[in-house]
Every structure is written in structure tokens, then in C-alpha cells.
Amino acid sequence: MPKTATRQKTETNKNSTNGTAVKTVSNTKNNNGVTDKVNRKEAQSENVSRRKSQTNSIKQIEPALLREMLYQMVLGRYFEQKCAEVYRIGKIGGFCHLYIGQEAVAVGTMMAIREDDLVITAYRDHVQAMVKGMPPEEVMAELYGKAGGCVGGKGGSMHMFDAARGFFGGHGIVGGQIGVGTGMAYAQKYKGTDSVTLCFFGEAAVNQGMFHESLNMAALWKLPVIFICENNKYGMGTSQTRAMSISSVAKKAEAYGIANEFVDGMDVLAVREATERAIERARKESLPTLLEIRCYRFMGHSMSDPGKYRTSNEIKKYQERDPIVLFRSSLTDAKIISEKDYTELETRAKEAVEKALKFAEKSPLPDEKELFTDVYA
Ligand SMILES: Cc1ncc(C[n+]2csc(CCOP(=O)(O)OP(=O)(O)O)c2C)c(N)n1
Ligand SMILES: [Mg+2]
Known about the structure:
Elements: E1 8-13, E2 22-27, H1 40-58, H2 63-88, H3 103-110, E3 118-120, H4 126-131, H5 136-143, H6 176-190, E4 197-202, H7 209-220, E5 225-231, E6 234-235, E7 238-239, H8 249-252, E8 259-264, H9 268-285, E9 289-294, H10 312-319, H11 323-333, H12 339-362
Parallel strand pairs: 3-4, 4-5, 5-9, 8-9
Antiparallel strand pairs: 1-2, 6-7
Helix pairs in contact: 1-11, 2-3, 2-11, 2-12, 3-9, 5-12, 6-7
The structure holds thiamine diphosphate and magnesium ion (MG).
Thiamine diphosphate is lined by residues 122, 124, 172-174, 202-205, 232, 234-236, 301.
């Protein structure tokens, strides 16, 4: 997984067609998806080395922003834990895909962009919507199918959407949003803006034709799009190793002459730095980038996942590298937060989730006359 892992080798190729140094990673050991042979000590030592690199990065960022990044990660975690709780008692219906474990990806990328930049993603979208500025109340009410939700309760978990805040969904067709995101970047360029699009998708979407067609057009038309592959190792219950012939997603960008980077998704600051490089390329040179961000989802694919395709030992290994624990420790070491600050931040996040829940509970169901509004078929 991450750069620091012994089983991977990072290569730098300065000959990309864009003239930009591109980083790719190749696996030097076979990494079968389902295995008990996971080394928790290795995970702990990876954590220690990420802490060292975070200590250096912290010095470059405003303390207030660092605290806000941690807050957003904690808010996302509590929000999703609450979703699981209320889903189990039948308050939320339909599909529900949680983001627990992947918070560093949304926060590291989206807290590096401007308000006028655009975001599009797949169905694991609650936390991303909030980081882009959607109030937790609107996300929770949408999950409840209530009128106060961001799309009036008619989208649900997979379809968070808020055009005014630059959040273009929430899409259920695996890979479908990659083409739409590429089109959004085309519009940004056509209108002469210097804004960029962040287009998120999972590693399973990379096997879809839409990924390849979009990368081709983005490179050909020099579009300001940042393709962000959240590689959490699984597409539902299928390990990446059982579905993808070449496991390095980043490397696939080279076939299209697109700059690419492999990033440790447990390290919010590494994610931020890679995103900043991609933003610079998109804004100043109008060129796309593909970031492969390796992460891990601690929960099942959705709330109805029996989880038989991986072992609890494997999950524990990645929990040793919990991105929130890592970032909190680094901020504590750097004296950016104290124990008291963290307790206050945690309380604030819990209160925000409770407020969202109350709002969703109280919000009315959509009116009958809304049945056909905003419905296209
Ligand atoms: C075109 C299409 N094929 C299959 C599905 C069924 N499906 C839903 S989620 C999913 C796995 C996607 O995994 P990945 O892209 O890695 O995202 P993750 O769930 O890991 O975030 C599949 C196959 C779908 N929704 N759309
Ligand atoms: Mg996946």
C-alpha cells in the first residue's frame, strides 16, 4: 500500500509527455487480497514513518487550517458512525455506503481547492459532500429521504448534489461520473476560468471503458481535471488483485500521457501535497493528473455486506494506520493541539451530528406534488 511499504518500489519517470515528472509504483511482492498473513508490526512502523513526514509538512501549514482539517475528519467519522447506527434501526432506507477509514482522502484533497472548483464522485459521498460545504443537516435529511435533504429527499445516500456549492453528485453507475467530470472540466476551460474539477472514483471503476475514454479526451484536450482514484483494495467483495491485470492504477495514466502520482491515503498531508501539485498543473497549464490514493474502508462495502471476502486480521492491520489517529498524534507532537483542544473538537463534531439528526427527524417527508419535479425519464 503506501509509499513506505517494503513491498512497493517507487519509480520516477521524467519523460512523461507532459514534461512533468511522474511517479509510479510497482508491486514487488504478490499481494493477494484475502490473506491472514498480515503484519501488524509493519503497519505500526509505517505509521511511525508517516508521523515523521507529517511533522515536517505541518510546519508549512497554518495551525488554524490544520485544526480544521482534523475537525472535518472527525466530523466525517462521527457522522458515518451515526449513519450506521440509525440505518440499523430502519431510519435510513436503501443503499448506504460509508466512508470510515477514507477520511484523509476527502479532507486532504478537497481542503486544498477553492470554492469555485468543482467536485464529482461516486456513491460513497456523504463525507465528500460535507467537506465541499454541504451542511450535515442537509446530508442527514437526504439520507432520511426527507424534504430538508439536499435534493428534497429524492436522491438518498448515493445522490448528494449541490450545484451552488460545486458538488455534482453522488453517482451510482460505477465509472459513469468520470465522463461527466471530464465534461465539467471541459466547460471550465471553454468558459475561460482557471477553476479545476476533482473527479473521484474507486479502483473498480478503472476497469470500465469510461475511465479510459475520459483520460484519453482529458489529455487530448488538455483539461483541468484531477482524476482521483480512491484505491481501497476492493470493489464490493472482489479484491483488486482478482479483477485488475496491472495493479498500479497510477501507471495507467502514462498510456495517455497524463502526469500521475501514487499517494498514501492514510496520510492527510501527503494527500494534500499531491493534490496541490495537481492543482498547480491544472490551473496554470490546464493539464490533467491522475492520483492513485491507496486507502482502506474499515466498514463493509455497504450496510448489507457480510464481509466474507477479507479477514478481521486484515482490517486490524489497516486500523493500526487509522488516518485520524495518525494526524491527531502528529498535531499533538507539533503542539498544534492539546488534549483539551481535541476533546473540544470531538464534542463540537458530536454536537454537529446530533443537530443534523434532529433536523432530519423533524424534517417533513417530500410533498406528494413533488413526485414528478426534477425527475427526468
Ligand atoms: C456499471 C456498474 N456495474 C456494477 C455496479 C455494481 N457495483 C456497485 S458498487 C461496485 C464496486 C465498485 O467499487 P469501487 O469502484 O472500487 O468503489 P468502492 O465501493 O470501493 O468505493 C459495483 C461493482 C454498478 N453500480 N455499476
Ligand atoms: Mg474500491
